[in-house]
Amino acid sequence: MRKFIAALLAVGLAATPPAARAEGAEERYAEILRKFGPLVVHVKALIKTEITVEGEKQDSEDWSEMLGVIADPDGLVVVQVLPFVSSDPEETRTPLDVKVTIEGDALDHPAFLAAKDSKLGLAFLQIEGLADRKLAAVDFTGAIEPRVGQEVVSVGRGGEELDFVTYFELARVCGKLKRPQRGWLLSGDTEGYGLPAFTLAGELAGFLTSIAAIQADGEAPDEEDYFRALLPASTVKGVIDAARRIAAQMAIERATGKKATPVEPGK
Question: What is the tally of structural domains in the chain?
Fold first, then answer.
C-alpha cells in the first residue's frame, strides 16, 4: 500500500506542469492570497501529554504550532487533529492553553478545543472573547468537486519570526478515493493540513488532511502510513455544523464553571 501510494504521488508530481505556464496565473495567485489570506490564522497550543509506561504515568507539557482557518463568523476554527490525538491507546493529549493570531489584531485570542474528528483528521477550536464581533469565514457557497488532474491552491501563514506572512502552495489532484474516506489524492508540496484548497478561479475545492491507509493487520498506522488527501467541502461542512453546536454548548458550560469536554461530532 505504501509503495503504491508513493509511486502514484511521484507520477502525479512529475506530470505537474510549471505553474507559470497557466495564462494569468500570477494575478490569480495574488487574488487568492488577498481574498483568503485573512481567513488563515496561526495557532499555538500548550499540550499536556500523559502516557503510561510499565504501569507508571509520565507527563510532559509542550507548545505546538499549527495553522487553522476560520470556518464560522462566530470564531470556529478548523485545524489538523494530529496535535490533539495519539494512535497510542496509552497516551492522551490535553490542550491546557490555546492562542489564536488573527490577521490585523494586535493581541492573540484565547480559544478552546471544542471537537475533534479523528476519521477526517480535523479538530475544531472556538475563539473566545469576540462578543458580537463577526469574522470573515470560509464561504461554502459554490463549492465544487475537483477533477483528477486539476490544480488546487492553498494559503498558508508563516510564524511570528516571518511576521505571519501569507503564502500559497500548489497541489494537483492525482486520484479519487473511496476508502478509507471519500476524497482525492494529491501530489505537490502543500502540507497545510486542516486548511481549505481552492481552484485558480477561487472556488472552494475541499479541505486538506492526512488520512491513514487501511491497515490489513488491524494495527494502528505508523507515520509513514498517512498520505495527503483532499476532503469534499460538503463532508467538512456537515462536521463544522455539528462542531458549531458543540462549541456553543461548551461555551455555556465554561461560563458557568462546569466541566466542558471536547467530543467527536456525531457521537
Answer: 2
